[in-house]
Amino acid sequence: MPTFAEKVITFNKQLHYHGNLPSDFNVINPYLDNPETLVVMGQFYHKYYHDNLKRKFIIGINPSRHGAGVTGVPFTDTKRLYSACGIKMQSAHTHEISSVFMYDMIEAYGGPDIFYQQFYINSPFPLAIVQHKKPNNWINANYYDNKQLFEMVKPFMVESLKQHISMGLKTDEVFVLGKKNATFLAKINKEEKLFGEMIILDHPRYIQQYKSKDKQLYIDNYIHSLSGL
Predict the structure, then answer these.
(1) What sign for the dihedral angle of Cα 151, 157, 162, 165?
(2) First to last CA, the chain
(3) Residue 69 and residue 128 in contact, taking contact as beta carbons nearer than 8 Å
(4) What is the pairing mode between strands 128-134 and 119-122?
(5) What integer best gives the mean pLDDT of the chain?
(6) How far apart are CA 25 and CA 52, in angstroms?
(7) Are residues 158 and 166 in contact, defined by beta-carbon separation less than 8 angstroms?
(8) Residue 133's pLDDT band (boundaries 50, 70, 90)?
(9) Is residue 229's pLDDT more than 70?
């Protein structure tokens, strides 16, 4: 029986978006763009998910090009991959603000070993999306930023969520990062009946950018919600 790690690694290796996109959007697949991404991603999952435990699901939006868009690990830039997880990436060096909050919260929870034994993080659209704003300038984009974009990627999102669940995730409750993300996932969940209770948490990027003075309160709220207190 394959371990949780092997299921995730297989899923990531087979990831490929074949659908259409609006003309000013593009998808970045880190597993195709950088061979080392596959290496460090594999090391991460073998380190923390080499078992068959059922985990709770934390759902982001879609990877950023400086976080999972490089490392292949959700909410993990190369700095946190090394400093918190002990996995060094040679070919890239990235800093991503959502990763800063997430790993401060994980440390407060008890550290990566304890946290990842209980939780699995990924996104309904598990590849990075970028939007072309002006010549040679692509910026991070969310799957819900454009109505046409959402409709085009929705079937891929539904299939991705179902594949994640099949790896061995608990579905009685799910933790959703970001209020707008939750609005769109609630629509999908109403149609597909994938999850029970949806627990909404403020997105790490929002907290780091706009609520940094109250960061500890948000960390406490995360831990309170994730622990079911």
Answers:
(1) negative
(2) 34
(3) yes
(4) unpaired
(5) 94
(6) 37
(7) no
(8) confident
(9) no
What pLDDT shows up at residue 175?
98
Longest dimension (CA), the chain: 49
Confidence of residue 68 (pLDDT cuts 50, 70, 90): confident
Lowest mean pLDDT among 67-71, 152-156, 165-169: 67-71
162-200 pLDDT per residue, tens: 999 999 999 999 999 999 999 999 999 999 999 999 999
Q: What is each CA distance from 61 to 39, 100, 177, 185, in whole angstroms?
A: 24, 17, 7, 10
Strands 25-28 and 128-134: antiparallel
Spell out the SS3 assignment of the chain: CCCHHHHHHHHHHCCCCCCCCCCCEEEECHHHHCHHHHHHHHHHHHHHCCCCCCEEEEECCCCCCCCHHHHCCCCCCHHHHHHCCCCCCCCCCCCCHHHHHHHHHHHHHCCHHHHHHHEEEECCCCCEEEEEEECCEEEEECCCCCHHHHHHHHHHHHHHHHHHHHCCEEEEEEEEECHHHHHHHHHHHHHHCCCCEEEEECCHHHHHHHCHHHHHHHHHHHHHHHCCC
Q: How many angstroms separate the Cα of 20 from the Cα of each of 10, 55, 148, 198? A: 24, 32, 10, 29
Q: How many CB atoms lie within 10 A of CB 7?
A: 19
In the structure encoding, which two tokens stand for residue 115, read together? 């946290």
This prediction's pTM: 0.95
Strand partners, 58: 121, 175
Determine the Cα–Cα distance for residues 61 and 191; give it in Å rounded to an integer.
19
